[in-house]
Amino acid sequence: MLWKKLKADDFDTDIIEVLRESNKEIRKQLMGLSRDDFSEVYLFFDYDAHQTNLGKSDDGDVINQMLESFDNETENGKLYISYPMVEALKDFEPGICGKPNTCFAAIEDLVKYKNVSSARTFNPHFRDYDFNTWKEIIDVFAMRISCLLGQADVVSYEQYLETASPYHIYICEANEAFKNRVFILSAFPEFLVDYFGRKLWKTCVKHTKNCLENQLCK
After folding, report:
1. CB of 92 closer than 8 Å to CB of 140
2. Burial of residue 175, with CB atoms counted within 10 A of its CB: 0-12 exposed, 13-18 middle, 19 or more buried
């Protein structure tokens, strides 16, 4: 895998070349391009609660090490993780952080999550998302991230920067894994907020409370 290859070479390997060697489709997409053609590299992974797809590391927690290795988009790249998978992006209801039965996915049922999320989505087709849809997604993301952090009040942008890095989110999710569940959270609104910053947060985040206290979903 990508992380193991880079680690084996003490991160002296060109990440674009590693990606180029990974499969034929990526090789076609990267034809004629080198690392110098990319000012930033972002990596998007699905969460593997048992690290079954990642393999086992002799050094301990593989995901933790990956987040430490991929923490800068201008160097090795920056890693974002969707919990439990990319379909978390469409698994939301505008205006609310979630309901007790939709905030979490049981680890034993993750194989069903793709179908479950499709059945309850309000916006099934990613390609149809316009700016208003993304505003709703980011608003719900702010409520959800606050809930994950144990905050009934939606965190401010400054609090978000201090407490909700990909590493902080993973630590919270690792704690949920001990309860045999995953807190549903998409990496894509997280990336957009990190990339576009305060202005996007202020434009999209309209709610000041989530449902943590009322639903006791923790």
Report:
1. yes
2. exposed
For 128-184, the pLDDT digits (tens) are 899 999 999 999 999 999 999 999 899 999 999 999 999 999 999 999 999 999 999
d(CA 48, CA 81): 9
**How far is C-alpha 92 from the chain's CA centre?**
14
- State how far the Cα of 218 lies from the Cα of 215, in Å rounded to an integer: 8
CB-hemisphere CA count at 13 Å for 163? Answer: 16
pLDDT number for residue 126: 83
Residue 136 half-sphere exposure, CB side, CA atoms within 13 Å?
15
The torsion region of residue 121 among left (phi > 0), alpha (psi -120 to 50) and beta comes to beta
Give residue-wise pLDDT tens across range 77-129: 899 999 999 999 999 989 888 777 889 999 999 999 999 988 888 777 888 89
- Residue 73's alpha-carbon distances to 39, 52, 53, 56, 170, in angstroms, are 8, 26, 24, 25, 18
- 7 C-beta neighbours (distance < 10 Å), count: 17
Percent of the chain scored above 70 by pLDDT? 88
Give the distance, in angstroms, between the CA of residue 202 and the centroid of all CA atoms in the same chain.
20
pTM over 0.85: yes
d(CA 103, CA 148): 10
